Amino acid sequence: MIRDITIGQYYPAQSPIHRLDPRVKIVCTLIFLVSLFVQNSVLGYALAFVFLACMIHVSKVPAKFIGKGLKPIVILLLFTVAMNLFLTRGGAVLFHWGIITITETGLRTSVFMAVRLVLLVAGSSLMTFTTTPNGLTDGLEKLLHPLNRIHVPVHEISMMMSIALRFIPILLEETDKIMKAQIARGADFESGNIIQRAKAMIPILVPLFVSAFRRANDLAMAMEARCYHGGEGRTKMKPLKYHYQDRLAYAITWGYLIAIVVIGRFVPFKLWIF
């Protein structure tokens, strides 16, 4: 299960999306996320799915890798679907048994919410798979640069987010090693109720926190030894510059947003209750 969490991991490949400017990928990801909330129709979500599938194909990131990253949200997905399915009222009653009632509005809302959540996580993951942590830091810093005028520590915020993303795979790997070591010593993390399982996790959390603090201290000492003093006056080995493919990516993404708004809001289409 720990190995299935792919948040923050970078998948190296030679693809057009990998070569895009980090600012383009951040902005286009935000546009894609916005597109999931500005419409609520079958055609709109179908267009969003096709667009994301094309981007995954162009990025050369294996679909299995994307799917593996969705496994950790299965519980959240099922909980969201159940809450909307059984608690949302409206429209004709499709099923009723005791206190359980499923209506047209509840079924429609739960299905759309599940699709939206899957597309949201998959789209966000694609950005981290195709962008290095350093690239994300530089891109965020450039995009948030106007906030420097109101004395917002943009560089420090970008650096913290980049370090946090970089530490996620490291800590997951450390957790996997600790769990295997505890299992080899006879620990059992599978049997028992929720409280017993929570107690069994304590031998994992303590060494994990110790390891995390040690790694953070080593990183701080390494940055201090290299005379790191923030973003003021720092130069870039590879300064970010827009190229033709970046402008083309912007045009395609904005065209997609316009298309999904028009199709999702103004094209009449109904499939059963959807």
UniProtKB/TrEMBL annotation:
Q: How does it sit in the membrane?
A: Multi-pass membrane protein
Might you report a single GO cellular component term? Answer: plasma membrane
| Record flagged with keyword Transport | yes
Q: Name one Pfam family in it.
A: CbiQ
Keywords, in A-Z order = Cell membrane, Membrane, Transmembrane, Transmembrane helix, Transport
Q: Which domain of life is it from?
A: Bacteria
The protein's location, in the record's own words, is: Cell membrane
What residue intervals traverse the membrane? 26-53, 73-99, 111-130, 248-267
Q: Name one GO molecular function term.
A: transmembrane transporter activity
> Which InterPro entries does the protein's record reference?
ABC/ECF_trnsptr_transmembrane, EcfT
User: Do you know which CDD domains this protein is assigned to?
Assistant: EcfT (cd16914)
**Family note:** Belongs to the energy-coupling factor EcfT family.
Q: How does it assemble?
A: Forms a stable energy-coupling factor (ECF) transporter complex composed of 2 membrane-embedded substrate-binding proteins (S component), 2 ATP-binding proteins (A component) and 2 transmembrane proteins (T component).
Quote the function comment for this protein: Transmembrane (T) component of an energy-coupling factor (ECF) ABC-transporter complex. Unlike classic ABC transporters this ECF transporter provides the energy necessary to transport a number of different substrates.
Give the HAMAP family listed for this entry: EcfT (MF_01461)
Q: What is this protein called?
A: Energy-coupling factor transporter transmembrane protein EcfT
Species this protein is from = [Ruminococcus] torques
